[in-house]
Give the backbone structure.
Amino acid sequence: MKNRTLIILAALLVAIVFASYALSEMAWLRRERDSDPLRRLIGLPSLAVGNLSPSARNPGFELLCTGLYDVPGGYCNYFTDGVPFVNYRSGANVTLGEIIR
Amino acid sequence: MIQTENLTKIYNKGKPNQVQAIVDANITARDGEITVFTGPSGCGKTTLMSMIGLLLSPTMGRVLIDGNNVSDYSEQWKAVFRRENMGYIFQHINLLPNLNAVDNVLMPLLCHNVNVEEHRGPALELLRDLGLGDRSHFKVENLSGGEQQRVSVARALITEPKIIIADEPLTFVDEASAKTIMDHLFKLRDEGKTVLISTHVSNLARLADQTVSIQNGKIF
Amino acid sequence: MSYRYRNLLSYALNCIQRYRTRTIVILVCLTISSGLFASVIILKDGLVREGQLSLKYAPDITVQGVISGRPSYVETRITERIQTIWGVERIVERIWGYGNIGNTLIVIIGVQLENPVTDLDSTYPLESGSFLSAQQSNAVVIGKAVAELLGAKVGDHLSIVSESNQVHQYSVLGVFNSESAIINADTILMSNDDARSFFNIPAGKATDLLVYTEEVNPALYELQVNFVAREISELPNVRVVTKDIIANAQETTYGARSGFFSIVWYLVLISVAVVAFNQTVVVGHESKFEIGLLKALGFSTSDIILIRLVEATVLGLIAGSLGIISGIFNIVVLNAPILRDVMLGWATLYPSFRAPFSIRLQSVLLTYTITVVPVIFTTVVPSWLNATVDPDIAMRGARA
């Protein structure tokens, strides 16, 4: 293999990588630019992002996922049990009323 | 002209295994002369040649080439000086085994600002002169000891150096190859180059312009 | 470029070919490690971006119901109260939930057809048929995976048994296309009324309420949303979720999940470093001798470092590129087996859809960095150390 072949190979591979980056970026920018009436109508995250169904959960991983603060609909779905990020107290908590002595 | 002043090399100085390889070497080698260093194995010939060739730093003393104290040069300048002025024929040949003969010969040119491919012709011619015309594209590991030594000679000469340092150049060669190599060295002497040869072969010493005997690291 | 640098470059490339075993070992190990890294990061970036895109169209605030601290339906009567909060533009009731057809999970989503969030005449990603209209009832638009599961097409009538054991019949109005599978592959879309009837949710309740706030300067958006959210959270039996919370949760989750895989990657990288180092040592004597010889022939220390740098960079770039390309192949062509399950969740009830991926410039550069830098380190540093000794000692030491 001539020396030039190595350089050409390296350059070609790097070019392929950067071309992939360019194509990926263009595709995402197109998606981000397009208005998406279906997403707007449904208002739910896409499948890749999450699934809120408890039946989609493996009980064996509940413990592991407890520390992961899963995305809404994500596997661990901490959401339905109260996400620590929520800054607002949930309504209807039991609160202390007046103490009558 | 090459001069050494009190050139000394002590290996492992200050340690229990300290070795005084060369002590207080004062020699002069003139341009257009062959200077032969003789002595038994282990007397310090290679150490002295290495110090003169700037391949080894002396413990004490200095090397002067054309009046310049080259021992004090930085590593960078020593490399430049070697590349511009010296050709070295090593005792252990020291070719790169997975390159072919002509590529080994061209190696010293890689650090010069020249088009190496333009020197391929002269390199092949050198190899032809040394009797290796039909072996120039053989990998050196497929060459005999004598053939490798001749490749080493060609490598030392490709840059047309002013100073040729040949450390035991006839060790692995047969009589015919030895004659070819010596003919080349004499030719260089006649061109006004400074030729230093170390050998334990006494016949060679008789052909020198100057002979320096070394015993146990001391010059006699 | 001067002949000198061309010569050095040529020699460096020649070294890559001459030390064949070392080259192959380093290439293979680095390609595997960078491929693994690239797979994780490309998928993670894709999921984060997909999540961000989802959030772009998500309501600003989602209001869920809570009873006894557990999720429940939300009372729709609080809509009037929420509407009075400063900054609220509109509120939409949403009814949705899950069902199973066989072992496949489906999502049944009700859509408010009167005064919908978006125009029902908009272009929807349909493969066939038409979208829902306010005039029709008991009509559905289904996702591709549902259509394939049921063998249904436009015009067919579906009978679905709800969890209250009631049979509901719907006519298939339309089927979504494959390109939009990531949003709706497992979806059956129907009107809110039909969904309410299917899930048997009484009037006055909904699964959640979608609150959209007014358009404001982006600098004030967070302030406005937080204000509205805080006001809503004062209402009884509600829980409030904002976009920011979802975004943070997504980022954390994908960061954590990709972190798991990163542990594997770290282990691979350590083994790569060990292998590369061993190879450097194995060829070390040869290399040490070569450096001594080069110096004897007039190469300076900087020449030698340049040679090794070029070698390492070219090797690193080739390995990094192969790694990234293999990562892309793994995600795009193979749909990221194993990795996909870890990153998306272990639920195996997903219908088939292409995992989202994003090749970001930062990720590409990071992958190259983690490939090139270790090679440079394990190649240049030993060479530099050898180049600073006397050539004679270097050659003798290598021979010993």
Remarks:
- Residues 57-87 of chain A have pLDDT under 50 and may be disordered.
- Chain A has two domains: 1-34, 45-86.
- Residues 3-33 of chain A form the longest helix (31 residues).
- DSSP finds three helices and no strands in chain A.
